[in-house]
Amino acid sequence: MPPLFRSLVTLFMLSCLNLSNVSAVQAVDSASTEAIINLPHADAWSLFTTESGLKSLGYTQARVDLQLGGVLQASGSSSLSDLNTVVISFDSERMLSFKPAATNSEWTVLYVTAMGKDMTQLRWLEYFAEPQRAAVEQHQAQVRLLFDQLIRRYAPECEVCKLEKARLK
Fold it and tell me: Nearest Cα to 48, choosing from 71, 67, 72?
């Protein structure tokens, strides 16, 4: 993303969020994780925006109220951090932005982009004040693990595997 455009996006998001505890001189930074999964676009969107989708990611409890100011809450996963977030904005089946309910100094944007009929690109961006870098990097590592699990879960079967499976039936 060109630096000028990134600065404009950051200023727009800061003004929309009214980040009162992030001073004007404090730098806002970002980190991102991307993956392409073999899953139709609508199904990939549902993984992150429905209770059943969040549960399929490993959470035992989930609550989704997909509207401006609504919540995404999930807990009970052994490998993922609990979610307790507020929806900032969304473009149905394309983009979802949310922030932790407890703070205004960071936010996340998830882009879900169709890549043909059966493939989807996921892009997870986190915007944060510089002092939070270590925590965000740790969270990005969790997101990377999640995306890697989704890549493996939805990997296409090779032709030999399909034939072997059919033979065993």
Answer: 72
